[in-house]
Here is the input.
Amino acid sequence: MVTGPGNLYVTAAKRLLRGVIGIDAEAGTTEIAVLADDTADPVHVAADLISQAEHDTAAASVLVTTSEELADAVDAELEKRVAGTRHSERVRTALTGPQSGAVLVGDLDSGVAVVDAYAAEHLEIQTRDAREVGHRIRNAGAIFVGPYAPVSLGDYCAGSNHVLPTGGCARHQSGLSVQTFLRGVHVVEYTEEALRDVANQVVTLAEAEDLPAHGEAVTARFGR
Here is the structure.
């Protein structure tokens, strides 16, 4: 089993090994989405977008907001902060790439729909009643609720999973867990009486699928 995040080369290696051994997923570059309304602090939002853009020029930093004023304020704050951060060139490339940007929505319901469709690796909720909004999200690798739960907290301190689905895979899978390393083997054992009890159902389903020999493998055990 090969698991965990990595760059393009790690992902390529996983793709080559898929089917020969197990992998968790073809993890992509890190991503953050911030769902925010007019109560959010643009300084917090900008700092958090930059924190993920710092990883890689292909990192995705997405703001989804109901407030045009907040979007403008975040843009202004990004201009100030990007210039002063250590990896400014990398960050600027990530923030200006096609994978990053701001999405202006008409209301919070639309914002929830957008972030659910995006299914971000990391999703921050910076809105009124952030906890309630967080409960409405179905697709995200990890959800960070409120103004004092930045993604960096999950990276280094909170104890949340740090190997999370990217590229929309949060729609159908969770982060790395002990279940990733376990294999379930089903064991089936029936008595003669128990098999007799379900024989008709098996034969009926087999005939419906036009696979009569499947049913005969049951009835052959009972003679004529």
Remarks:
- The mean pLDDT is 94.
